[in-house]
Hints:
57% of the residues lie in helices and 11% in strands. By secondary structure, it is an alpha/beta fold. The longest helix is centred in the middle third of the chain and has 27 residues, at 135-161.
Amino acid sequence: MPDGALVFLAVPDPAVAELAARLRGVRARLVHVSGALKLDALEPHPRRGAFHPYQSFPDERPPRHFEGALIGIDASDAELLDDLKALAEKIGGRPRRVTDEQRPLYHASAVFASNYVVALGHVAARVLEAAGWDRGEALEAVVPLLSGVARNLADLGLEGSLIGPIRRGDPGTVERHLEALDNAGLESEVELYRKLGLAALDLALEAGLEPEKAGQIKKALTA
């Protein structure tokens, strides 16, 4: 391997440090693709970097999957940082430096936007199943809605995309939802509805919901 070669360690996070140590004698520039690990995971190598697509890869994806995606990069030196930036741009990504101090929050954000969206899809499907759908029917209903929401976010932003009873200040519907979930024995969904409802309420206020209506919604969510 030539000196200064760019070597990506595309392995699970727990294996990064061990593999970097095994490559101790290799005079290459090591780069991990973890969203959470700091650069020191690649010690003892002096030239090390990070290259993490803020994108979902549950399996092998085509190169176009990188197009438009944020790619969090960092490096131990300016030259390597420039090379990683150029690589991100070459594959259609949008590079942004994410420092060691920023990485835990950066990666937590990615979990919310990816893993937890899948978890919310699971919850939405479970609620439909409680109403009599089977899993396949529920997923057929949920997926187009999730896709539409993603398009709305791209087109309208956060405030413009928020709809529903919380945005319009409708505590009666919120109360009926909570009652129905409770009657169906969906206790964890009740608590999740309350917590996510409070987050939606914050956004609804930013979007222009009247404070009086917001107070009624908050009372319904916390009663």
